[in-house]
Write a structure and sequence with these properties.
Layout lengths: L2 H30 L1 H12 L12 H40 L4 E7 L4 E7 L3 E2 L6 E5 L6 H5 L3 E7 L2 E16 L2 E7 L6 H8 L16 H7 L6 E6 L5 H15 L9 E5 L2 H7 L2 H4 L6 E4 H8 L5 E2 L2 H10 L3 H15 L1 H14 L9 E3 L2 E4 L1 H10 L4 H23 L3 H8 L3 H15 L3 H4 L2 H25 L6 H11 L8 H16 L2 E2 L1 H15 L9 E4 L7 H10 L4 E6 L28 E6 L1 E2 L4 H8 L9 E2 L8 E5 L2 H17 L4 E6 L2 H15 L2 E2 L10 E6 L8 E6 L13 H8 L2 E10 L15 E2 L1
Parallel strand pairs: 2-4, 8-16, 8-17, 9-10, 9-15, 11-14, 15-16, 18-19, 20-25, 20-26, 21-23, 21-24, 22-23, 24-25
Antiparallel strand pairs: 1-2, 1-6, 3-4, 5-6, 6-7, 12-13
Bound molecules: adenosine-5'-triphosphate (ATP).
């Protein structure tokens, strides 16, 4: 029997043993918690039985409140325990399926050799003395990712441990049985990675715990108190590393950080659902996720119509009027920069002296407080604007209270009382009874009843107005933003012409209650400066994926919103498609820190894992400085460039290629166009016969099958086969769109096909012909 066979059998035996222990643990856990579910049901059903309700006297009301609170706490404690229990059962089940993926034999200096098995969760022996499996996030496990056999070291909270790694082994264990085993040398075995990367695209992102690479591990376990900026090539595992990092943080700081203190700014909804399964798969709760657009929409007046970054991009890609386009580009560039934020700061400073805009406060056609009076009151106050606004609010509410009293003596509420619908009357009666403690005897006094009803009517009528005051709607915010463009003089970087146009366009849009994408952050920023910054102190770790698409202003704004958060920015300046024309400085390049004194750490990922080697070789040559990008050694076909004589031939060729890809077993085939319009047109021609799904809104989700969508919507996502249906000089003809083409082409995992009629896009000319096949 050879040594390998022997080892295989030993490992198999160990797996059986581990499975038995896991199964025992799981059953024991279920047994011990059987009563828990019953308790919860019982508590829910009998919630009110154990609560003493008595509201007659204040003392008793307090007691009632305490008793409800106690009962609710008991229930929520049980529900929390149930949640924990449920999570643990799921983890055991997952471990039974695949208990570990790695083993290292480690000899600490002068110590014995210890076999360390690494999996998605830890497992202890019966006596709770030894680890049978170590969690992949444990300090000792980091050696697995960082070293090949030989001298090694790892960090622990109490210092560094050194020693020698005698063996490094990888396992593929599925459904509880050993399917593969590799002893590895230099890096984490190419075999396992080959195996993982060779699979089909999935509609949900996979966890990479078993094959995390050394440079990714550095990001995942990054522990210094600095802002982390990761610049990584397309497909280099930025998002994967971010997700693993979140899981790591939840483990490392499990006593102080929970999942809802971690927030991920995601590029779009498709992406949100794409990454949502990674953490639960690792047995962790999901972090919070939001798109910037959603966040902004939640903070702005609802009657604003916001342009999304995708709409902005679609405009930039579609407008054929080059003059108008250039003016818009100038506006975007201007409004994205930190200089613009400084201008806004100066403007706000000026407002402490003059220039605030307020609304008249009116009720039923009568003016209660005139705008000038508010203005006068505001400028009598001193201090920061938000503090003064707070005082104005209190003052206005007082004015409203006084006004309300007077209104009660008017005729209109009496008239309205007469026309009250029966249910309103009863409601009023009940409310009066509750709040005033009236009984039937006193209430039948008609005069008092009438007075109370009138009071209630006035109160109710005035409530919306008061609410508006509470929400600071007495400030004319839109007008304030607009006014800035009257007051500023033309900034040095713009021509008079451009400036005039920016002023005009901004005002025109504001008057239509339309907010351009580039105005969203500045507007919110102004709102915060006037109304008081709405900061979130709960978030401790903030991640921004596709960070290259955020303007410097936007990042600075987000930083101010989350003062307690540590920042993790991940992106690729080669995929900066939202500022493709404006060329705003990228944070991802060194030397572009927001503030000189800011502590920033730059880490880089240059190796691309998503695509086969021939695809990476092709795509990297689309970039002027792509030579630094390395391909992971996974073989495949060279990309194919199909030249067709006319439109019909092109469609025919696309059809044939789809059929071939399907035959080859590719399940997710994406046809990535440049614009939404092109996607719609293509869908109209081939959609039906292939049951292809058209995706043109960022809110749509992504499933397996044939998809037709503009490339920019596929950010962060990948497909088995990608087809770029029209890469001619009629479509991709601007240097600015190189990054867009690169982003689309790098979505391909296994196959890439490009099509064109007429003349090939000049952007492809930088790619040498031996890197693709001509069809
Ligand atoms: N260490 C790894 N082990 C296994 N798969 C990996 C590893 N690193 C990356 N991958 C795979 O490579 C693909 C790309 O990863 P990911 O989406 O995280 O890259 P990215 O840098 O965010 O890409 P992009 O910038 O193009 O959106 C995914 O399928 C991911 O599972």
């Amino acid at each position: 029997m050879d040594e390998n066979h022997d080892e295989w059998q030993k490992e198999e035996k160990r797996i059986e043993n581990i499975k038995r222990i896991l199964s025992e643990k799981k059953n024991e856990l279920i047994e011990n918690n059987k009563e828990l579910m019953g308790d919860i049901l019982e508590l829910r059903q009998g919630f009110w039985d154990d609560v003493t309700v008595n509201m007659d006297e204040p003392d008793e009301a307090i007691e009632t409140y305490a008793s409800i609170k106690q009962q609710a706490e008991l229930l929520s404690e049980r529900e929390r325990s149930y949640g924990q229990f449920h999570k643990l059962v799921k983890l055991y089940a997952r471990q039974e399926d695949s208990p570990y993926f790695g083993r290292i034999d480690f000899q600490e200096e002068d110590g014995e050799i210890e076999s360390i098995y690494i999996g998605i969760g830890s497992l202890m022996d019966k006596n709770k003395e030894d680890f049978l499996i170590y969690d992949w996030r444990a300090p000792v496990s980091s050696m697995y990712y960082d070293y090949a056999p030989g001298p090694v070291q790892y960090e622990t909270p109490v210092g560094e441990v050194t020693g020698e790694m005698k063996l490094k082994r990888q396992f593929i264990i599925r459904r509880g049985s050993l399917q593969g085993m590799f002893d590895t040398g230099l890096t984490i075995g190419d075999e396992l990675l080959q195996h993982v990367l060779g699979g089909n695209a999935t509609s949900h992102m996979k966890s990479i715990v078993a094959t995390i690479q050394k440079e990714q591990n550095q990001i995942i376990r990054y522990d210094k108190n600095k802002m982390l900026i990761v610049q990584g090539a397309a497909g280099s595992g930025k998002t994967s590393a971010a997700m693993q990092r979140i899981a790591y943080l939840l483990y490392r700081y499990r006593t102080s950080i929970s999942a809802d203190q971690i927030l991920l700014f995601s590029p779009n909804h498709m992406f949100i659902s794409y990454v949502a399964s990674v953490l639960p798969e690792l047995g962790e709760d999901n972090m919070r996720q939001v798109t910037f657009q959603e966040y902004a929409a939640g903070r702005l007046d609802r009657d604003f119509e916001l342009e999304s970054p995708f709409e902005q991009l679609e405009y930039l890609l579609s407008d054929r009027d080059s003059q108008r386009l250039q003016r818009r580009v100038a506006a975007i560039r201007f409004k994205s920069a930190l200089d613009y934020k400084n201008l806004l700061d100066d403007y706000v400073k000026g407002l402490t002296e003059k220039g605030m805009k307020f609304r008249n406060i009116t009720f039923r056609g009568q003016t209660i407080v005139r705008a000038e009076e508010i203005h006068h009151y505001f400028y009598k106050l001193t201090g920061r604007i938000p503090n003064r606004i707070e005082s104005v609010k209190v003052w206005l509410l007082d004015q409203l209270d006084a006004f309300q009293l007077k209104e009660q003596d008017k005729d209109w509420p009496v008239e309205e009382a007469a026309f009250l619908a029966k249910h309103e009357y009863v409601e009023a009666f009940n409310e009066l009874e509750e709040h005033q403690g009236f009984n039937e005897d006193t209430f039948d006094d008609f005069a008092r009843e009438q007075k109370l009803l009138v009071k209630r009517i006035v109160e109710r009528k005035m409530r919306p107005l008061k609410r508006k005051i509470e929400k600071l709607k007495f400030i004319k915010l839109r007008r304030l933003y607009e006014q800035m463009f009257d007051m500023l003089s033309c900034p040095a970087e713009l021509s008079e012409e451009e400036w005039k146009d920016i002023c005009l366009e901004t005002k025109k849009a504001l008057n239509k209650k339309h907010l351009y994408a580039e105005d969203v952050t500045p507007y919110l920023y102004l709102q915060d400066q006037i109304e008081g910054r709405s900061v979130n102190t709960v978030i401790r770790h903030l991640f921004i994926d596709e960070a290259q698409d955020y303007s410097p202003f936007q990042i600075e704004f987000i930083k101010q919103l989350f003062p307690n958060a540590r920042f993790n920015l991940l992106g690729d300046y080669n995929q900066a498609i939202h500022n493709l024309y404006t060329k705003a400085p990228s944070l991802l390049e060194e030397g572009e820190e927001l503030e000189e004194d800011r502590k920033v750490e730059h880490l880089y990922l240059m190796r691309s894992y998503r695509s086969t080697k021939p695809i990476v070789e092709f795509t990297k040559h689309l970039l002027p400085d792509g030579e630094k990008i390395e391909a992971f050694n996974r073989e495949g076909q060279k990309p194919r460039v199909h030249k067709e004589d006319n439109e019909d031939e092109l469609i025919k060729s696309i059809r044939e290629t789809i059929l071939s890809r399907q035959k080859e077993g590719h399940e997710t085939i994406a046809l990535l166009t440049r614009t939404k319009q092109e996607a719609k047109e293509l869908h109209a021609r081939i959609g039906e016969s292939f049951a292809a799904r058209l995706i043109y809104k960022e809110s749509q989700s992504f499933e397996k099958g044939i998809l037709i969508l503009p490339g920019y919507l596929a950010k962060g996502i990948e497909f088995d086969a990608v087809m770029l249906p029209e890469v001619s000089n009629a479509t991709y003809n601007k240097e600015e769109e190189r990054k867009l083409l690169y982003t689309a082409a790098t979505r391909a995992m296994h196959e890439l096909d490009l099509f064109y009629t007429g003349v090939m896009s000049p952007l492809l000319q930088s790619v040498s012909e031996d890197l693709y096949e001509i069809k």
